[in-house]
Amino acid sequence: MSHDSTLKRWLQEGIHYVVGPNVDDGAAAVRPVAEAKGIIYFPYAFPKALYTKPASNAVLGMVANYQSARRSTNICTTTRA
After folding, report:
1. What is the model's pTM?
2. How many Cα atoms occupy the beta-carbon half-sphere of 25 within 13 Å?
3. Can you tell me the distance from the alpha carbon of 64 to that of 61, in angstroms, rounded to the nearest whole number?
4. Pick from 62, 52, 6, 61: which is nearest to 29 by CA?
5. Is the Cβ–Cβ distance between 66 and 59 less than 8 Å?
6. For residues 10 and 54, is the Cβ–Cβ distance under 8 A?
7. Fewest C-beta atoms under 10 Å: which of 57, 66, 74, 78?
8. Tens of pLDDT, residues 17-50
9. DSSP strand E in 1-81: where?
């Protein structure tokens, strides 16, 4: 699944939190949409630009292989109060 189709799915399903992506390029690719839509994401990626201002939605996280989905991103939906 491409990052574009993943992002479209996030937007359609009202996603608020994402564990992943687990690569630098993937984390950089989702940043604009995550920040525009208020999606908090936990990438295992190391570019400082993901975690320094003006970036505000990424939290560095290390996901064990048994916690990640086949396509490198676990998607968790929540209902806003």
Report:
1. 0.63
2. 3
3. 10
4. 6
5. no
6. no
7. 66
8. 888 888 889 889 888 888 888 888 888 888 899 9
9. 17-19, 40-42, 74-76
The HSE-up count of residue 19 (CA atoms within 13 Å, CB side) is 14
pLDDT of residue 44: 86
The 3-state DSSP composition of the chain as helix, strand, coil percent (nearest 5) reads: 35, 10, 55
Residue 43's closest CA among 70, 22, 16?
22
With a pLDDT cut of 90, the percent of the chain lying above it is 2
Task: Please tell me the total number of residues recorded for the chain in this structure.
Answer: 81
Burial class (CB in 10 A: 0-12, 13-18, 19+), 56: exposed
Contact indicator for 45, 59 with CB cutoff of 8 Å: no
Please answer whether residues 4 and 63 qualify as being in contact, where contact means their C-beta atoms are separated by less than 8 angstroms: no
